[in-house]
Amino acid sequence: SSLFYGSIIWMNNSNMSDINSLWYKVSKAAVGAVFNVHHAILEVILGVPPLQISSRVIAVKHYLKVFTDNQDIHQDFVISQLEEGNTFVQSQLRDVQKFLNWKI
User: Reduced to 3 states, what is the DSSP secondary structure of residue 71?
Assistant: First the structure.
């Protein structure tokens, strides 16, 4: 969980290969594997979802929290980013919309 603290800000496509490499080494050590094991098998053994999915879930939770609290200071920032046409924020909010459509 410490890996994901602030991940919606710093985790992006340009550094995902480094993060995946680190995650693989940590997962392999946690399982105690000596030989190379496929990444998906490690995640199944540990019972954790892939990094990309975990990151998207955390982003959805963050945006839901921001928009349910009218006094959240981040709300103005997110709205300003939408007005500027920030495609990264728009993409994350599409995930929120997909989640809400599924939930409702």
Answer: coil
Separation of alpha carbons 32 and 26, rounded Å: 10
Residue type, 61: K
Contacts of 46 (CB under 8 A, 6+ apart): 27, 30, 31
Pairwise CA distance, residues 95 & 45, whole Å: 27
End-to-end CA distance of the chain: 28
Q: Which of 1, 8, 3 is nearest to 66 (CA)?
A: 8
State the pTM of this model: 0.72
Q: How far is it, in rounded angstroms, from Cα 46 to Cα 39?
A: 11
- pLDDT for res 59: 86
